[in-house]
Amino acid sequence: MTGALKGIRVLDFTHVLAGPYATRILGDLGADVVKVVSEKRPGNTPDSTYYRMWNRNKRSLSLDMSTEHGREIARALAERADIVIENFSPGVLDRWGIGYDVVSKGNTGVIYIQMSGMGDGGPWGDFVSFAATVHALAGLTYLTGVPGREDIGIGNSFNDHQAGLHAVTIMLAAIEYRRTTGKGQRVDLAQYEVGVALTGTALLDYFANGNVQKPVGNRHQHEIVAPHDTYPCLGNDRWVAITVMTEVQWQNFCTAIGRSEWTGDPRFATALARVEHLEELNNRIADWTMKLDAYDVQELLQNAGVPAGVVQTGKDLLQRDPQLSHSGFFRKTIDAGAYNEATPFERIPLQFSRTPVEEYRAPRAVGADNAEILSEWLEMAEQDIQLEEQIGTLR
């Protein structure tokens, strides 16, 4: 691999989404990411959607961590890694004898990232957590519904992605600290706390004003603006989002849709009046949009300087989006990996002028890189690797 992080060694014990997403980014940027897996662990098989999605640009080491031999190899690898990252429940790697206190004795520069659901310690430290429960506890589920339906929530693994991005930021910061001091460190990242931090203005509103924010659907939480919603268009479940933030945009909107008289109507003449008569305004706009194609509405309003965007599906993004097509956002891997085919995927959403990210390798079969990794990282002889395979350590 080439890239800005070429030469950085990452020992990856993560699973599911948040951790693998973080290490996928590191792999995209050129780090040597060794993913420790086992055929015994669900989700590590070539037909697993999660394994396929989050494990490109990584090498695969199959290691049975239930054996002492497996744990010894893992400890030796950790002592040669720049970064060790895991998202098990707190204490798992400590019980395996490869926790930070042990590893850092032989590797003082190690950056050791622990990104459990609730963090290390505390009354909820042992909670089993997944996206839906973290969203609920953090307040994200409550805030992202519609009025009267505080149970709807976000609907995907939003917090996992954000925790992964936080982990990348942490690792880059720790690399910079080590560059200037020579010292590594342990970092405890609580995915739950990431979610709470994402509630942002809801916390500020309560701290400053004592207000408990309510879910408002597509309406703006803090500004008196309208229209600010999604509207039905021609076709099955087709929608367009329209956001009018200024009076100039309101006037341009009315002119563009042939309703200039609305600007003089006292019910719609000001933003405050429009908010007060929001239901009637939204119904009138929907009467107009539902007769038109969503992309035609978007183009008409954008040409008039009014923010508008089609509510796109995955199919739209892949087949109809001209912006993503122009930037080459969707690619195929340069090799077949474990699946005997080039895997389609989205590239990293960054473009570097000096260290471009152009190498995208498909996820590897479990243990496909055992010999290469053990030879390069541990200088293990071929006969010793074969012996470990025979006794079942590498599986």
Question: Mind explaining what this structure looks like?
Answer:
This protein has 395 residues and is an alpha/beta fold. It has two domains: 9-197 and 329-390, 3-Layer(aba) Sandwich (Rossmann fold), CATH 3.40.50.10540; 228-319, formyl-coa transferase, domain 3. Helix content is 40%, strand content 11%. It has 18 helices and eleven strands. It has helices at residues 18-28, 49-54, 68-78, 92-95, 100-106, 131-138, 140-143, 158-181, 191-197, 201-209, 247-256, 271-276, 278-289, 294-303, 314-319, 322-327, 370-378, 382-390; strands at 9-12, 32-37, 59-62, 83-86, 111-114, 185-188, 228-232, 239-243, 308-310, 330-332, 344-346. α1 (18-28) links the parallel β1 and β2 (32-37). The radius of gyration is 26 Å and the shape is elongated. The chain starts with 8 loop residues before the first strand and ends in a 5-residue tail after the last helix.
Largest beta sheet: strand ordering: 3-2-1-4-5-6
CATH homologous superfamily title of the largest domain: Crotonobetainyl-coa:carnitine coa-transferase, domain 1
Report the CATH C-level class of the largest domain.
Answer: Alpha Beta
Structural class category: alpha/beta
Q: Main beta sheet, described?
A: 6 strands, parallel
Write down the CATH topology of the largest domain: Rossmann fold
The number of domains is 2
Radius of gyration: 26 Å
